[in-house]
Design brief:
By secondary structure, the chain is mostly helical. It contains 8 helices and no strands.
Length: about 150
């Protein structure tokens, strides 16, 4: 129960941060910066990737990223039905990346595989990076078709 409470606090903080970004109209400033629109579909991916790497939970990463990214969608050229779908897919890809010691599932893999920590870090962590990059490549190709 204690772990669930911590996750809810993180999700709530992410939502509050998203509201602060919205209230400050940072999306308007973002839209005015030269080259930001070029980030497009990669911005949601990077936000989720950073959050996943920092705190370990894919669920918390994608939910927090969604609240942070939402106000930026118009400035990124993703404020359409297809753009929002692609942003969610990009966040999903980013939330798969960099599984390491702060991720509970990393320890499931480590314990059930019988491998040493160093080996799991090399193999599984690298595999999650490749999964995220492959997923993002698929989302990018879809964005070329759908946007």
């Amino acid at each position: 129960m204690e772990k669930a409470g911590g996750i809810l606090v993180i999700i709530g903080a992410g939502g509050a941060f998203g509201m602060v970004i919205n209230a400050l109209k940072l999306q308007d400033h973002l839209a005015s910066i030269q080259g930001v629109k070029a980030l497009g579909i990669f911005f949601p991916f990077l936000v989720a990737l950073i959050l996943k790497t920092a705190q370990g939970s894919s669920t918390v990463a994608v939910l927090t990223a969604a609240s942070i990214v939402l106000p930026f969608l118009p400035g990124l050229g993703l404020d359409t039905e297809n753009g929002r779908v692609l942003a969610v897919l990009a966040m999903g890809a980013g939330s798969m990346a960099v599984s390491h010691v702060n991720d509970a599932y990393f320890w499931v893999i480590t314990n059930f595989s019988g491998q040493e920590l160093k080996q799991v870090l090399k193999v599984y962590s690298m595999a999650t990076i490749w999964m995220a990059l492959t997923g993002m490549l698929a989302v990018y190709i879809l964005s070329l078709i759908m946007l």
